[in-house]
Amino acid sequence: MNNKIYFLKYRISKILNYFIYKLLPYPYKEKGGQYSMIFPSRNRGAKVSKHLFDTALEAIKITPDIDLSDLHHRATIDNEYIDVFPGDHYRLLGAFMRVLKPKVVLEVGTFRGVSALAMRKYMPQEAVLHTFDIVEYHKYTGHYFKPGDFENGKLVQHISDISKTEYFAKYKELIESADFIFLDAAKDKVQERRFFEHFAQCKFQRRPIIMLDDIKVWNMLRIWEDIPYPKLDITSFGHFSGTGLVDICYDKYEDGLV
User: Fold this and answer.
1) pTM exceeds 0.70
2) In this predicted structure, what is the pLDDT of residue 91?
3) What is the DSSP string of 177-203?
4) In what order do the strands lie in the sheet with 104-108?
5) Residues 6+ positions from 253 with CB-CB distance below 8 Å
6) How far is CA 233 from CA 80, 226, 246, 247, in A?
7) pLDDT digits (tens, 9 = 90+) for 22-73
8) What is the pLDDT of residue 22?
9) Which strand (E) or helix (H) includes residue 209?
10) Whole-number Cα distances in Å, 182 to 115, 116, 213
11) How far apart are alpha carbons 241 and 252 in whole angstroms?
């Protein structure tokens, strides 16, 4: 039932967008275009932590060295944006893995698996990536996974909506062990807000960096603005639709703000 509601909302949003586009035509035509808005930030308290700033700079610097060309051979539906930098986040994700050398990585929103595979390629050998979705990966047309990807336990998919309290509680201990969390979920004005409400109750063992996708998309503008933790918009080096970083554990450390 939840899946049916999700896809019904998706269809309704597509219809509404069609009429919006008719009333407000694009300044120029480009595949993947969406409406957004620019405005000065109200949230002056959400500064950038030195940790976030330095880590982002280091990752951005090495992103041109990240090679994901091997992923093109994995799917029947090719993704022309895999190698794009700047403009998409896949190579940037790989760079963060190289810089952070995480032990535990979480992804919310498996979809076809490109992000998960990009991160897995550059994670340390002993690291484990847990990817969450409400749909099993093999049900997505053109997914990039192979059966062997999940055999050694370094890549695990969980079918669960952890924005819901009862499911978040089930995985809370795992989430608290994360070094890096990539949120690429519903962007429905609700789910991402719930994630941060749950994260606020966590006692993280380390200092995870949280990366959010699509922060410039209309439904995400208010979500991003309302995040009270030190954060950094790195859209110019990530996904054209918006890439943001959050240092959710800043208050436990004394390394300063930029």
Assistant:
1) yes
2) 97
3) T-SEEEE-S--SSSHHHHHHHHHTT--
4) 155-159, 128-133, 104-108, 180-183, 209-213, 243-247, 231-233
5) 49, 51, 207
6) 24, 13, 9, 12
7) 888 878 777 777 778 887 766 555 689 999 999 999 999 999 999 999 998 8
8) 80
9) strand 209-213
10) 9, 9, 8
11) 31
Q: Please tell me the distance from the alpha carbon of residue 109 to that of residue 185, in angstroms, as a whole number.
A: 5
- Compute φ and ψ for 190, nearest 5 degrees: -120, -55
Q: Which amino acid is at 67?
A: D
Instruction: Tell me 82's DSSP state.
Output: T
pLDDT tens, residue by residue, 72-87: 888 777 667 888 889 8
The pLDDT value given to residue 2: 58
User: Quick one: which of 118, 217, 255, 61 has its CA closest to 244?
Assistant: 217
Q: What is the H or E stretch that residue 98 is in?
A: helix 90-100
Q: What 3-state class would DSSP assign to 87? A: strand
